[in-house]
């Protein structure tokens, strides 16, 4: 194996002189004197379309005596790095692995986003259903209240009519008419009461489902950090355990108030009748109307109905909503079971009793209102 030399005449140089240029081309075999190439010389290669170039004499090829031997080239080949094909076949394996890993990661991200969107849509639907049910329940409660007032008015009329009848001759037709009206009102009241009970149960069921989807299972806990106006060192935190089993609607409403940040900035305002009451009144002097409007915009200005269970009475260190149904809540410092029968009770203090005692010992005006509001700096669901 050697190199062949091609002599090319008439090649221009930088000095525009013509001379021969020798070009060495590798050969795959030695050329002997009896080679068939001499008998059938190859046609000259055309390097351009110019007629002058095509008429040039053929390039002569001779073996270069300085050509390396075939053995030397074999040794050289063994010392060279892997060919591109071998290198490419090895490097393609990690590339395929990375591509597969990226595809799996993208699929996981897509599935996770789809799951989040599905859960978000479910929560939105449940919230809309809850608000609709709450509105219907409030309307039913108002209708029931109006019917009871009408019933009371009818009772008064019947009593007056009875007094008139006792003094004079009874009017059977008028008396029967009043009885019919009374029976009709009582029938409507019973129907509304049944509708109200069914709607309350539906609201409770919806609240349980929303708590499970948004806050998970198990016992829910809320931590509150207070700001005492005296600025002294001391305990500032307490923890409330929420009972969402017996009181799902009240528990969900309170958890929503906390998780949405509505409780942040509110304050404890009074210590009376063995309760410590907190209200949506800012302790930092900011607008109380703006704070109340924030509750209303989220539909959390009150519970839909006064949820109550005899199994969860207002004992010492329990937490409940105020009787007026507002966002205000209170902590019982004594057993107030008889006083607050019918009022929602949804939580119990489990940590931070020293903070509750410090709150209870804070100075008041007239033994009722705190001298300075004690702020709720931060409330969060644990």
UniProtKB/TrEMBL annotation:
Any GO MF annotation of the entry: peptidyl-prolyl cis-trans isomerase activity
Coiled-coil ranges per UniProt: 123-150, 175-202
Pfam families reported for this sequence: Pro_isomerase
Annotated Basic and acidic residues bias: 16-32
Keywords, in A-Z order: Coiled coil
Region described as Disordered: spans on this chain: 1-70
Biased composition (Polar residues): 51-70
PPIase cyclophilin-type domain span: 237-381
Official protein name in the record: PPIase cyclophilin-type domain-containing protein
């Amino acid at each position: 194996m050697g190199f062949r030399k091609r002599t090319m005449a008439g090649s221009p140089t930088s000095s525009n002189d013509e001379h021969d240029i020798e070009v060495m081309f590798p050969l795959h075999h030695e050329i002997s004197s009896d080679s068939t190439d001499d008998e059938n010389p190859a046609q000259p290669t055309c390097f351009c379309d110019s007629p002058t170039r095509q008429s040039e004499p053929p390039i002569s090829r001779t073996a270069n005596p300085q050509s390396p031997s075939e053995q030397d080239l074999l040794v050289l080949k063994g010392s060279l790095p892997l060919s591109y094909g071998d290198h490419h076949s090895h490097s393609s394996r990690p590339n395929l692995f990375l591509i597969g890993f990226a595809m799996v990661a993208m699929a996981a991200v897509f599935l996770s986003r789809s799951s989040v969107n599905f859960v978000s849509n479910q929560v939105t639907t449940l919230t809309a259903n809850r608000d609709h049910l709450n509105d219907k329940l409030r309307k039913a409660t108002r209708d029931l209240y109006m019917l009871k007032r009408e019933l009371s008015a009818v009772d008064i009329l019947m009593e007056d009519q009875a007094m008139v009848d006792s003094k004079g001759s009874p009017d059977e037709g008028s008396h029967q008419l009043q009885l019919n009206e009374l029976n009709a009102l009582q029938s409507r009241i019973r129907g509304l009461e049944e509708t109200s009970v069914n709607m309350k149960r539906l609201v409770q069921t919806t609240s349980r489902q929303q708590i499970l989807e948004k806050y998970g299972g198990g016992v829910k806990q809320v931590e509150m950090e207070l700001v005492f106006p005296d600025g002294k060192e001391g305990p500032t935190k307490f923890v409330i355990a929420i009972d969402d089993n017996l009181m799902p609607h009240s528990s969900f409403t309170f958890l929503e108030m906390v998780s949405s940040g509505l409780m942040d900035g509110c304050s404890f305002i009074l210590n009376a009748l063995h309760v410590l009451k907190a209200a949506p009144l800012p302790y930092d002097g900011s607008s109380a109307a703006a704070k109340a409007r924030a509750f209303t915009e989220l539909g959390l200005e009150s519970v839909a109905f006064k949820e109550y269970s005899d199994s969860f009475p207002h004992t010492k260190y329990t937490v409940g909503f105020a009787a007026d149904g507002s966002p205000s809540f209170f902590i019982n410092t004594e057993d107030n079971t008889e006083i607050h029968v019918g009022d929602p009770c949804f939580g119990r203090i489990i940590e931070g009793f020293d903070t509750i005692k410090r709150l209870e010992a804070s100075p008041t005006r007239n033994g009722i209102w705190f001298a300075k509001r004690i702020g709720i700096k931060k409330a969060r669901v644990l």
